[in-house]
């Protein structure tokens, strides 16, 4: 089987396979932008919709390396950026975050950004090859 077919199979399962539904903020985009701008003055933030929390299944040594940095082997995948305080992402851009520093309610924090999860999303386990295919997609 060639790499493109394997990547397509991995992505299909990742994006369309079963996942545990989660709820994010119920506020509208403009309201979220204003609240986030007031609350997160010291750290960049990004509001996203159509998101999925991915618990990445890694070899033990890689997971230890990530935990040694104070992070968890969990990523955020968002199909649509709504607003980014640094203009790194434009509205509608797809995002694959760095590993998780903190996750609480509708806030997912990576090393460099706080992501505000708007609307409904999901959580699931993902293989490292599937995450690599997603990042390359």
Which key features would you list for this structure?
137 residues, alpha+beta, eight-stranded mixed sheet, 4 helices, 8 strands, 31% helix, globular, DUF6957, DUF6957 domain-containing protein
Approximate helicity band: 25-40%
Report strand %.
Answer: 35-45%
- The average pLDDT score comes to 90
Termini separation (Å)? 18 Å
Overall geometry comes to globular
Kindly state the number of beta strands: 8
Write down the Rg.
15 Å
The low-confidence parts are none
Main sheet attributes: strand count, strand direction, barrel closure: 8 strands, mixed
Structural class: alpha+beta
Helix-strand pattern, N to C?
HEHEHEEEEEEH
Number of domains: 1
DSSP summary: helix tally = 4
What does this structure look like?
By secondary structure, the chain is α+β, with helices and mostly antiparallel strands. The chain has one domain. Helix content is 31%, strand content 37%. Strands 1, 2, 3, 4, 5, 6, 7 and 8 form an eight-stranded mixed beta sheet that branches. Helix 1 packs across helix 4. The protein is globular, with a radius of gyration of 15 Å. The two termini are 18 Å apart. The model has no long low-confidence stretch (mean pLDDT 90). It comes from Pseudomonas vancouverensis. This is DUF6957 domain-containing protein.
Quick gist of this model?
With 137 residues, the chain is α+β, with helices and mostly antiparallel strands.
Task: Present the secondary structure layout.
Layout: H1 3-16, E1 20-23, H2 29-39, E2 45-57, H3 60-68, E3 74-84, E4 95-96, E5 100-104, E6 107-110, E7 114-117, E8 120-127, H4 128-136
Parallel strand pairs: 2-7, 2-8
Antiparallel strand pairs: 1-8, 2-3, 3-4, 5-6, 6-7
């Amino acid at each position: 089987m060639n790499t493109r077919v394997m990547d397509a199979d991995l992505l299909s399962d990742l994006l369309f396979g079963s996942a545990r539904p989660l709820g994010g903020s119920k506020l509208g985009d403009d309201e979220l932008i204003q609240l986030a701008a007031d609350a997160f003055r010291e750290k960049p933030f990004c509001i996203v919709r159509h998101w999925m929390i991915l618990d990445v299944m890694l070899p033990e040594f890689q997971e230890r390396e990530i935990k040694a940095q104070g992070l968890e082997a969990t990523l955020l995948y968002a199909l649509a950026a709504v607003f980014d305080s640094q203009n790194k992402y434009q509205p509608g851009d797809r995002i694959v975050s760095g590993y998780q520093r903190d996750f609480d309610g509708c806030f997912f924090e990576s090393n460099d950004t706080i992501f505000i999860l708007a609307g409904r999303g999901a959580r699931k386990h993902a293989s490292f090859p599937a995450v690599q295919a997603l990042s390359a997609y």
